[in-house]
Amino acid sequence: MRAIITGASTGIGREMAKYAYSLGMEVWITGQNASALATLSEECGKAPQLAADLSTHAGQSALLSWIHEVKIDLFVNNAGYGVWKDVVHAEDDELEKMIRLNVEALLRLSRVVAKSMVAQGHGCILNVASTAAFLPGPHMSAYYASKAFVLSFSESLHTELRRTGVTVTTLCPGPTKSQFFDRAGMGAMPLLDGPWMPQMTSASVAKAGVDAALRGKRRIVPGIMNYLSSKAPIFMPRYIQLGVLNWLQGPLK
Ligand SMILES: NC(=O)c1ccc[n+]([C@@H]2O[C@H](COP(=O)([O-])OP(=O)(O)OC[C@H]3O[C@@H](n4cnc5c(N)ncnc54)[C@H](OP(=O)(O)O)[C@@H]3O)[C@@H](O)[C@H]2O)c1
After folding, report:
1. Which of 12, 41, 101, 127 has the most ligand 1 atoms within 8 A of CB, as the residue to mutate?
2. For ligand 1, is residue 33 a contact (CB within 6 Å)?
3. What is the pLDDT of residue 6?
4. Could you give the number of structural domains in the chain?
5. One-letter-per-residue 3-state SS of 177-199
6. What pLDDT score was predicted for residue 223?
7. Separation of CA 163 and ligand 1 centre (Å)
């Protein structure tokens, strides 16, 4: 079996590659950092690797050419990042670039890979959303909206593909130890990794996601606190969600 994983150079994606390899799968890895990919490739039986910026159309096309006519059993859209910044403080193209990765690349790659999996009669797609998909997120508004897209799109695609042998699983991690918070500029968040926001390891999130995808599950929210926060919209009106997230993610004054 062959697994192809985006965002494999660090964090959750890197752990997914290692876990899939430990299950006996051949893994193909992609990210931006070529030297991190080379190190991981050695750990995963000289895994084929591709360095590409998936926030660009050219980078997405390079990945699609690389996997053209390759039989894929598991495809993971994991590459993504957040921007912790009020909308009016964002640079020109800062949020738009994030959306091109978190939304456009995931949509394009899911569409092309799903089509070839339907033709081969089987396959699993694993799309990485977040518990952010269930809530509005003041001070990270475009990131939260991007993950709401991933969840809605991926669950609908899963339903469209019923009876084709192809499944689409959405992984919704909560706070997880990785480079995510530094990349998002969230190092200064006071509640980070406190009792209110316990962080899971990338390895445990990766295992939960890959196992769920191989079982063809529609959605997986690993961790009890994360599972409960995914249910918040049922018992918490939207205006309270906005207030809580505004408080939790408000920049230091
Ligand atoms: N950590 C959390 O708390 C958390 C919670 C919920 C959801 N998630 C989601 O989990 C996924 C993985 O994040 P992580 O926590 O593992 O963070 P991470 O350690 O920062 O890893 C992000 C990965 O995405 C890749 N990436 C970033 N920009 C890219 C681009 N323009 N083109 C191609 N690849 C790019 C990175 O590659 P390079 O390093 O080579 O640039 C890296 O491999 C993301 O979709 C994130 O939104 C994370």
Report:
1. 12
2. yes
3. 98
4. 1
5. ECCHHHHCCCCCCCCCCCCCCCC
6. 96
7. 32
d(C-alpha 54, C-alpha 163), whole Å: 30
Q: Are 145 and 45 in contact (CB under 8 A)?
A: no
What pLDDT does residue 83 have? 96
SS3 200: strand
Question: Residue 77 is part of a domain; what is its CATH number?
Answer: 3.40.50.720
**Tokens 């590459």 identify what position?**
79
DSSP string, 107-158: HHHHHHHHHHHHHHT-EEEEEE--GGGGS--TTSHHHHHHHHHHHHHHHHHH
Residue 40: give the domain boundaries: 2-249
Per-residue pLDDT tens over the stretch 164-174: 999 999 999 99
Q: Which amino acid is at 13?
A: G
Dist. CA 155–CA 172, nearest whole Å: 12
Q: Which pTM does this prediction carry?
A: 0.97
Separation of alpha carbons 178 and 165, rounded Å: 33
Q: How far is the CA of 8 from the centre of ligand 1 (A)?
A: 8
Position 187 confidence tier, pLDDT thresholds 50, 70, 90:
confident
